[in-house]
Amino acid sequence: MLHTILRQSTKCRSTFLTMAARPMSTQRPPTAVLLTNMGGPETLDDVHDFLLNLFTDRDIMKLPFQPAIAKWIAKRRTPSIREQYDSIGGGSPILKWTRKQGQAMEKLLDELSPETAPHKHYIAFRYVKPFTQHALEEMKADGVERAVVFTQYPQYSCSTTGSSMNELQRGIVANGMENVKWSVIDRWPTHPGFIEAMTTKVERKLAEYTPEQRKDAIILFSAHSLPMSVINRGDTYPAEVASSVDHVMKRLGNQYPYRLIWQSQVGPQPWLGPQTADVVKNYGEAGKKNLVVVPIAFTSDHIETLFELDQEYAEEAEKAGITGWKRAEALNDDPIFTKAMATIVHEHLQSGQVVSRQYYLRCPGCTFDSCGTTRNFFKSYDPQQ
Ligand code: FES
């Protein structure tokens, strides 16, 4: 209660008046905004368990003897991944950025939507702390009655948002929280606020070139790749990433040539390409000099931006003779982006939507029972179904 009262003191005048008019005993619990993401190891010591949890996730892959195989892969990959995290300061900044984003978003939301204030963000990571269970316990302690799940992946994939939702559904049932009014923002690839935030980052980078260099600039939108087995199952991710790219390019007036490329492939299986490393090498050999790489599917800095784009691929670019390699900044706590986050949640609260229409349609090649269970669970909240 003290926490709630303290939070009220920071709100805008209109919200304060709304809340002050309400007797203390009837002050409502916060509207929860649950930010979901895979997460990343915060320290080098977290790297092994992060990998182990990732490879144990049976919502994204089913392997024979999975616990043993996951253990083996995690052990084998930990040293090299630790080195990568070491080179970016000793851990992933994703928790730091998610907290900052959440705090800025909840303040703006209180102003935008006093009728659902106070708002409070919670964080549920899939493979590192704070896990879904931690978030649910905190929400339970706060007496939450209305919760919006807000994926921090603008473009939906069953490997990211889908897995988090399956985990959340199990957590809700295990914690007896079915009585909370749940709804989900499961994708937002073309939301105008997101597109504006992303476009601004690209424009700022392009502005660093001389007019002569800008004439020759190429924009490379680089997103995390997926194994072709996931793509061929019917995952919507490539189409949604492409739609984000299309919207950013339209806002830029379609003035620059561009490509959508894919990074972070691992292992011997075929992955969606072209691979970022190959593209950099090939364009370098073709004499291209000015490449702006845009992390279109990430909302904050982590290993894919700070290590892969800034170190690994930047080095490749230098070797290939690319003198004008630039990376658009991640959205992090950019005010345009945090405003977009608040607007997305506000619009969702007003819409009355439980999940997107697209979410109910499972991948044509889906064989995971958990995907069906989760969809049926959210359908039970949906008067439209
Ligand atoms: Fe896409 Fe199950 S894998 S719905």
TrEMBL record:
Its EC number is 4.98.1.1. The keyword Magnesium does not apply. Coiled coil: none annotated. One of its GO terms (biological process) is heme biosynthetic process. CDD domains: Ferrochelatase_C (cd00419), Ferrochelatase_N (cd03411). It is found in: Mitochondrion inner membrane. This is Ferrochelatase. HAMAP family: Ferrochelatase. Keywords: Heme biosynthesis, Iron, Lyase, Membrane, Mitochondrion, Mitochondrion inner membrane, Porphyrin biosynthesis, Transit peptide. It holds the Pfam family Ferrochelatase. Catalyzes the ferrous insertion into protoporphyrin IX. It is an enzyme of class 4 (lyase). The keyword Cell wall biogenesis/degradation does not apply. Pathway: Porphyrin-containing compound metabolism; protoheme biosynthesis; protoheme from protoporphyrin-IX: step 1/1. Its main location: mitochondrion. It catalyses: heme b + 2 H(+) = protoporphyrin IX + Fe(2+). It is a peripheral membrane protein. GO terms for cellular component: mitochondrial inner membrane. Belongs to the ferrochelatase family. It comes from Absidia repens. GO terms for molecular function: ferrochelatase activity.
